[in-house]
Structure formats: C-alpha cells, structure tokens
Amino acid sequence: MVRLAPKALAPTQDVLLDIFKKHDVNGDGRLCKAELREAFKSLGSRAPNWRAGRGLYHADANRDGLIDEAEMEALSKYASEHGYTVTE
Fold first, then answer.
1. Alpha-carbon gap, residue 54 to 51, rounded angstroms
2. Are 55 and 78 in contact (CB under 8 A)?
3. Domain containing 66 — which CATH number?
4. Is residue 82 part of a domain?
5. What are the GO MF terms of this UniProt record (predicted)?
6. Which contiguous run of DSSP H or E holds residue 8?
7. pLDDT value for 15
8. Residue 88: what pLDDT?
9. 30: Cβ–Cβ under 8 A, 6 or more apart, which residues?
10. Which of 11, 12, 36, 71 is the most buried (most CB within 10 A)?
11. Domain presence at residue 78
C-alpha cells in the first residue's frame, strides 16, 4: 500500500487570518506572543518562538506587544511572504 503525503497548499491571507484568530485562546480579539507562538507552531515553524517575535515586530504597529484585529492583516501578509503552508 502506497501512502501519499498530504498536499501542501499556499494559504490565502483569509485562511491565515482564520488560523491566527483560532489561536486567540482567551477570546480578547488580540494575540499575545504565546498565542502567536502556538499559531506558528501549528503552521509548522521550526522556531515558533522566534517567528512569533518577528511577527510581532512586523505587524504590531502600535507596539503594545499584541496583535489586534487591525494588525492581523499585516501578520497574515508576513506569514504568507515567509512561505507558510497548510495541508489538505
């Protein structure tokens, strides 16, 4: 029996937004670094803590240490530009 690996897809920014929003575990509409770390871990990052820090650096426009709804688009763009994929 031959097993095929799941097909990796480049997600749209909307798919990435949904993935990030799912990781808002406390439901406050913002992502802290720990939530970002888990989101990047779910996307397959080999260094999710580092990637979460970089995501904050690129997307946290008001520098409050959180990614809010207004900043999520910049975060999803950052993830998309760095080649993150999802599997079917």
1. 5
2. yes
3. 1.10.238.10
4. yes
5. calcium ion binding
6. strand 8-9
7. 85
8. 47
9. 24, 66, 67, 68, 69
10. 36
11. yes
Instruction: Establish if 3 belongs to a structural domain.
Output: no
Q: Is residue 1 part of a domain?
A: no
CB neighbour list of residue 21: distance below 8 Å, 6 or more residues apart: 72
Q: Provide the 3-class DSSP secondary structure of residue 87.
A: strand
Domain range for 21: 8-87
Cβ pair 55, 77 in contact under 8 A: no
Is residue 84 within 8 Å of residue 44, measured between CB atoms? yes
**Structural domains counted in the chain:** 1
